[in-house]
Design a protein that fits this description.
The protein has 466 residues and is mainly α. The chain is built from nine helices and two strands. Helix 1 runs parallel beside helix 4, helix 7 runs antiparallel to helix 8 and helix 7 runs parallel beside helix 9. Residues 95-109 have a biased composition (Polar residues).
């Protein structure tokens, strides 16, 4: 903004210096060339010839060559340089009535068009209203300096010359004043619009005299914008970090999910295998229960058979005792028969022979009957031995089953039980063998006694015959 103000001041100085007209020594008044940097075609004013006026009175104190033709240096506009023109405020205080004719007015308008060119955009010079208004004070000061210099120059001239210069100057710049007025009104409208926009869009009350409020507000807004941009960049960096962390966590969760799925599938397979094994064991348990029921039935039947066998053994023992008693009785009778035979051999007579023979025959019948009884008893004993062996086998099988099902018994107890069973079995077999041997011995004795008695009868019968 300061650079723009300086450019405006330079343009104002060049324009103000070009306003002052000088009079040549020969009486020709020449206006210098006026240049405006805002014109696109960069046209220049040609020196305008004024009408030759004979001065009424020239002051003797001024030399002829006091005023030379002043030509403003031509300054070409650069393409990159912003166009600048003198602000209309520099001519705001002038209230000079125009005394030029209609022709002079048209000529001034033509010269204005040639000097300033046609403005394509009346708002082109108001691109930065704040920069123009910030330089109003310096422009006013420069305008006062130019007016002071002009007054000093006019005071140095004579009155007719001064009037002629003023008349021509006013005619020359009549069109420029209208254009400057229009530009000033446009600038005022732009300033009003800018202040209205600033009041509506910002918390400021206006632009201010030196635009400090607007520049401060814009500086604050720029600082806030930069701060917000930095914070946004930080937030974007944080979001990027969070995104990377979330992607890493998603990858980790995906791996954990895959591992859990594999573990769950493995557990499902193990569960299926366990269920199949449970079904197999359930079927095996059902089969074992059926076998156990059958075993219990067999045990009950074996117990019944054992009870019957015990009853039969008891009956056989009782019968054996009876047989033993009968054998003893038979033995006693045989002894009596032998004693009777001995007595009959010593002093028997024929009368008593027949009763003795009858007794011998009866004793032989008894011996034959006893032999048949012994044979029957031998057969019964053999059958009892077979039945007892079968019962013992069933009992051993039941004991083995009971031992197999009894999980609380120890191996030592099982061995002791087996030993007791073997001892009992051996004692039973020993008793049976003893009984069998005793019966056989009794039979052998009976047979021997029978043979002796038969031999005695044979010996007695020849003696009696003799």
């Amino acid at each position: 903004m300061r650079k723009k103000g300086r450019k405006s001041q330079e343009a104002t100085k060049s324009a103000a210096s070009a306003v002052v007209a000088t009079e040549h020594a020969g009486g020709q008044i020449v206006s210098p060339k006026l240049t405006s940097p805002i014109l696109k075609d960069q046209r220049q004013f040609a020196p305008t010839k004024a009408e030759e006026v004979s001065p009424r009175s020239s002051p003797p104190s001024l030399p002829e060559d006091a005023f030379e033709v002043v030509q403003a240096p031509v300054r070409r506009a650069i393409a990159t340089e912003k166009p600048s023109r003198p602000p209309p405020s520099a001519w705001n205080g002038r209230k000079v009535t125009s005394t030029a004719s209609v022709s002079n007015t048209s000529d001034a308008a033509d010269s204005s068009e040639l000097g300033h060119g046609r403005l394509e955009d009346p708002r082109g010079g108001a691109e930065s209203v704040a920069s123009c208004h910030s330089n109003f004070s310096s422009i006013s000061n420069r305008r006062r300096e130019v007016l002071a210099d002009k007054e000093a120059l006019l005071n140095a001239l004579s009155e007719p010359s001064r009037q002629e210069v003023l008349r021509r100057t006013e005619g020359r710049f009549a069109g420029a004043f209208g254009e400057v007025a229009r530009a000033f009104r446009q600038l005022q409208a732009d300033k009003t619009m800018l202040e209205q926009i600033v009041r509506e869009k910002t918390p400021l009350s206006g632009v201010g005299d030196t635009n400090e409020m607007l520049s401060g507000h814009l500086s604050k807004m720029n600082a806030k914008l930069e701060q917000n941009g930095a914070e946004i960049r930080k937030l974007l960096d944080l979001l990027e970090q969070q995104r990377e962390v979330m992607e890493q966590m998603m990858a980790t969760h995906q791996l954990e999910k895959d591992a859990y799925e594999d573990e769950v599938s493995h557990l499902h397979r193990v569960l299926d295998e366990a269920e199949a094994e449970v079904d197999h064991h359930r079927a095996h348990v059902l089969k074992l229960n059926e076998e156990l029921v059958k075993a219990h039935t067999g045990i009950a039947q074996a117990n019944a058979d054992a009870t019957r066998a015990r009853t039969m053994l008891t009956e056989e023992a009782r019968k054996r005792e009876k047989v033993v008693q009968l054998l003893r009785q038979a033995k006693d009778r045989l002894r009596e028969v032998e004693s009777d035979n001995d007595r009959s051999v010593d002093g028997a007579d024929v009368e008593r022979l027949s009763p003795e023979v009858h007794r011998a025959s009866s004793s032989e019948n008894e011996v034959a009957q006893l032999r048949r009884m012994l044979e029957d008893r031998d057969q019964e004993i053999a059958s009892l031995r077979l039945s007892h062996a079968d019962a013992a086998m069933h009992h051993d099988a039941d004991d083995s089953l009971s031992i197999g099902h009894d999980s609380t018994s120890t191996p030592a107890e099982e061995i002791a039980r087996l030993r007791a069973q073997l001892t009992e079995q051996r004692s039973r077999e020993k008793q049976i063998r003893t009984a069998y041997v005793s019966v056989r011995e009794e039979l052998r004795k009976v047979n021997l006694e029978r043979r002796r008695s038969s031999a005695g009868r044979l010996t007695l019968s020849p003696g009696r015959d003799a």
